[in-house]
Amino acid sequence: MSTTNSITDLTQRPPRSPRVRLGGYVFLPRILDKGRASVAGKIGEYRFGAKSMDRHFLNFVGLEPDALKNEIAKGGGDLELLTWIQANAKTPRQPWEIAAWSEYHLRRTPDSDAETLTDFADEVKKFNPLREDINTWFDLLDLDDYCSFGGKA
Amino acid sequence: MKQTIEINETNFESEVLQSNQPVLVDFWAEWCGPCKMLAPALEEIAVEQAGRVKVAKVNVDSNPALAARFGIQSIPTLLYFADGELKDKTIGVVGKRAIIAKLEKLAVTA
Questions:
Q1: A97-103 contacts at long range (C-beta below 8 A, 24 or more positions apart)
Q2: What is the pLDDT of residues B58-99, one digit of tens each?
Q3: Exactly one of B4, B5, B29, B32 is catalytic; which is it?
Q4: Could you tell me if B14 lies within 8 Å of chain A, comparing CB atoms?
Q5: What is the overall mean pLDDT for chain A?
Q6: ipTM score assigned to the predicted complex
């Protein structure tokens, strides 16, 4: 039975929600899903690494995307990869830092500049202009995942 | 223009411990939402109290040794220094009035 293929084909289903945690880190299970899909050549429209939102996690712990991808390619499970990340992060994080970082990203909105705000609003409008409840980046990612695989917003 | 000053492991001694004014030091990070909530109040205090009090900021990611030295376990943490000594501390988001009250107490005793 090939369980790997069933969880890494992002042309068929979305990665895990950014809200899902591993080791306290939000977003990390999603990054691993995208990494596995990238290794399998099944990443579809998603992006893995420094040019995606993955950079927030990679910068926070001090990891190079290629190093993480190489480790993912060895086929380890979530716990094995978390253990590797904890051992290889250039900036090992304390539990309180992980909790604060995760909380920040759970609530993070497009507050950096007017252009980003406009882009965010335009993205939401593509799905449904009436969705005023989509406020955070995680809200948008979840909505995008849902709609990308047939869901109606 | 920002009135708060950036503190690092190199200038901490001269800007904080050797300062002849009370110094409020904010330990913060980019990934800290409450720190961003607190930042405007600190900027206002830095402007309003210019010449009487210094308001300084320490990025814990850039200055882990300073964070460890003061046992920072949560951010934002505000440390209040006067005469080269740590006099007071608050953790979490604190109101501007409460911060000013602590600074005034330091200014009187400094």
A1: A97/B29, A98/A23, A98/A24, A98/A25, A99/A24, A100/B29, A100/B31, A100/B32, A100/B33, A100/B74, A100/B75, A101/A25, A101/A60, A101/B31, A102/A21, A102/A24, A102/A25, A102/A26, A103/B33
A2: 999 999 999 999 999 999 999 999 999 999 999 999 999 999
A3: B32
A4: no
A5: 93
A6: 0.78
